[in-house]
Amino acid sequence: MSELKGYIYHRESFGAVDGPGIRYVLFLQGCPLRCLYCHNPDSQEFGLGEVMTVSETVAEILKYKNYIKTGGVTFSGGEPLAQADFIAAVIKELDRQVKSFKANDSIHCAIDTSGCIDLETSKVAIDAADLILLDIKASDEAGYLDLVGNDGLRTWELLDYLQEIHKPTWVRHVLIDGYTLDDEKLDALAQKLSAYDNIELVELLPFHKLGEPKWAELHQIYKLHDTPATTKEQKLHAQEIFERYNLKVQ
Q1: Residues with Cβ within 8 Å of residue 168, at least 6 apart in sequence
Q2: Residues of the chain below pLDDT 70
Q3: Which of 2, 59, 190, 217 sits most deeply, having the most CB atoms within 10 A of its CB?
Q4: Can you tell me whether residue 65 is helix, strand or coil?
């Protein structure tokens, strides 16, 4: 299993926005979605990127164990669950090695996913992780089709499963003018999420266009060129909607 290989898009040794604390973030290559606002479109194609074995990946992470001991590791992408077997193997080997240093030690592991991968395929990694950061793109099927070209049904299936196994979950939702920044849609999403008691936090993420130049480099059309970035006032208004349903929001 230590020779199982993963395709890596990028590695960040000091991440502060992808889960609790300071984290080592491993961005995996490949994603089946085509989100209009994707800020890493060069991470979408499968079969590219740096190839690393499980043992190489664990050795690299452990170089930073003193920095991430109050945080952990986050697997992001691309869509990390497209390489679920690799992630699960890394988590298990990381746990084994950390416990060999000190029996009660562990490194917190999170997965940042859209939930678009078949549940039976992704369960092996989901079950091994300590926390799931679930990117919910829209409140309904029509919104999903507009934004990502996917109906979103697998995302809700995953959230149901996370509730069933009592897996701590943070929901992430991008606020986009003309798409998700709509009181009715935000209220509908907040109401749906309020039924899940495993959701510890809802992160409302302002839309930005920092990734737009990458689309140009890839000779692709960026359809949100004229969409304005989310304002502080818009985010605060959206946050108030979610707080009405007793959801913890940031």
Answers
A1: 130, 131, 132, 198, 200
A2: 1-2, 103
A3: 190
A4: coil
